[in-house]
Amino acid sequence: MSVRPPKFRPEAWLASLSLIAICLISLGNVIIRYATDASFAFTEEFSVFFLVILTFAGAAVASRHNQHIRIELIEHHLPVGARKTVFVLQWLAGMVVMGVTCWYGGKFALEEYQWESLSPGLGLPNWIYVIWLPLLSGAIMIRMTQNLRDRLQGKDGPAVIHES
């Protein structure tokens, strides 16, 4: 049995709090709907917002701990030098995708702020929802870089246990 260090990182806390918020909002909405035949207006808007935060924060945690989706079969059957090349190629592909996401997410958030766009459900400023896209994309890029550094130095943590 492998022992992994606890994942007390800001994005892990953010993902956990987002999941708790989704559960509480959904549970509250179900209870109110059954009790009064009405529902809260904000639940869908906030649930989608928290789901996006949960997804990106969880991806940052997974990126740091080498638990992202990839083809491990190729990695395990390559010599060390070729394996390091694959690590760099994986990092480069991820950085391109997250860099584009960060760039266009930042432009989108700035436009939403400048245009003073409001959300359709609650009328809150849209930039409050959108600003998390470039911020968490940047966090994913930082965590991917930390993971690459550790992998190139041979500091791979305990392998993820795949159950089938």
Question: Care to describe what's here?
Answer:
One of its GO terms (cellular component) is plasma membrane. The chain crosses the membrane at residues 12-34, 46-65, 86-106, 126-145. The chain has 164 residues and is an all-alpha fold. The chain has helices at 10-36, 43-64, 72-76, 80-115, 127-130, 132-152. Helix 2 (43-64) runs parallel beside helix 6. The two termini are 17 Å apart. Residues 159-164 have low confidence and may be disordered.
Write down how many β-strands occur, each being a DSSP E stretch of 2 or more residues: 0
As residue ranges, the low-confidence spans are: 159-164
Number of domains: 1
Helix proportion range = over 70%
Looking at the structure, what is the overall shape? elongated
Name the average pLDDT: 87
Specify the number of helices.
Answer: 6
**What string gives the helices and strands in order?**
HHHHHH
Terminal-residue CA separation:
17 Å
**Hey, roughly how much beta strand do the residues contain?**
under 5%
Q: How would a crystallographer describe the biggest sheet?
A: none
User: Rg to the nearest angstrom?
Assistant: 20 Å
What structural class results from the helix and strand content?
mainly alpha
